[in-house]
Amino acid sequence: MANTANQYYRLRSGLTILPSHQRNIDDILSKLVQKVPARFVLLTDVTGQIISVRGEQGKINVVALGSLVAGDLAASQEIARLMGEYEDFQMILREGQLTHTFIVEAGRYFALMVQVSQEVPLGWARMLIQDASKQLPAVMEKELDKQDTAFSQKMEAETNQVLESENLSDLFDDALDDLWSE
Amino acid sequence: MFINWQLRELNLKVVYYGPALSGKTTNLEQIHAKVDPKRRGELVSLKTQEDRTLYFDFLQIELGKISGLTPKIHLYTVPGQSYYEASRKLVLRGADGVVFVADSTPNRLRANLESWQNLKTHLASLEISFTDIPMVVQFNKRDLPNATAITTLKNVLRLNGQPTFEATAMQGQGVFETLKTIINGVVKQVQKEMK
Fold it and tell me: Who among B2, B35, B194 is closest to A164 (CB)?
């Protein structure tokens, strides 16, 4: 098997984040928060599952927000497609009284949301956010180094062991039973 | 499916599909009510002023650790009204499993069939195989005195071995069995894909 991150896209809707991916993603987002400066940054996959959060999270419900960001981006992409204006790395901007919110497509797997104060010049923020949105998919395409390869093989073996266990469905059933109260 | 090895999380997406007013949102409301609040998020609903689903409902539930992995299940509904055709396809994106909520009201047979055909069309356009994606069919509103016979519903939809459940979602009946079965199906499909 080739040691590129592409192998982790093999599942139908799947994306697999390795620790090195997570480090690089967190690094890009932390720099973005500092440079803009941004109040809050959220990265989800296109189905709304949270990958990283940076900035002032406060009491924000990031799980709910993730689903809405992904839904918002998906709707905007479809609007653009219907209007014949579709292009990659689409950006949505909401201008508010105190803050502005950008939502941008970051490659085929990610949706990025950035909230900035209204004092931040929009052009400046837009430029930095667009840069970050292009760096993020590149993280997933990068060749894995030796350490990552060793780690990914170890994790893959462990995960496969879990996923291949014959009683996995029973374990899920038990976990669901624990969840439910009649 | 999305695996985060750093956090040892397994994320799965299940979509509740079906005709308007068949009880998709009610299924999620019942799950929200019955699951320990520490193990579920808020129920997010994008509704019209008439309380009808406009875009989607969303609920995340988190299972206890299984062999070191934490499974997180993301449950979505689609808007059932035919007007929201485009939104339904968007919500189906990335689905690992589908629950089709059929309406047992006698005059809804045609609506069930149209929604079923519509599901097939959308899955095909997303390059998701209708026969491969785990699916459960729930026959809801079985408490109606004149509910359509199960055999009629099965014949109209021409089911091909998909697991089915009778439900009265408003009273919580059949909701958990449906959820358990679709997750079971998704887990088996994930196992198959990993091989």
Answer: B194
The distance of Cα B66 from the centroid of its chain, to the nearest Å, equals: 23
Q: Note whether A75 and A150 are same-domain residues.
A: no
Of A138, A117, A132, A124, nearest to A30 by C-alpha is A132
The residues facing B97 across adjacent strands are B14
Task: Please give, rounded to a whole number of angstroms, the shortest distance from the CA of A117 to a CA of chain B.
Answer: 26
Cβ(A21)–Cβ(A139) under 8 Å? yes
B68 touches chain A (CB under 8 A): yes
Residue of B nearest to A153 (CA): B5
Residues 6+ apart with CB under 8 A from B116: B100, B102, B157
Q: Tell me how far the alpha carbon of residue B111 is from its chain's centroid.
A: 17
Asked whether the beta carbons of residue B1 and residue A14 sit closer than 8 angstroms, the reply is yes
Distances (CA, A) of B171 to B27, B154, B161, B175, B181: 10, 23, 27, 9, 19
Q: Enter the ipTM.
A: 0.85
Q: How many domains does chain A have?
A: 2
For residue A182, being part of any structural domain is answered with no
Per-residue pLDDT of B132-177, as tens digits, reads 999 999 999 999 999 999 999 999 999 989 999 999 999 999 999 9
CATH number at residue B70: 3.40.50.300
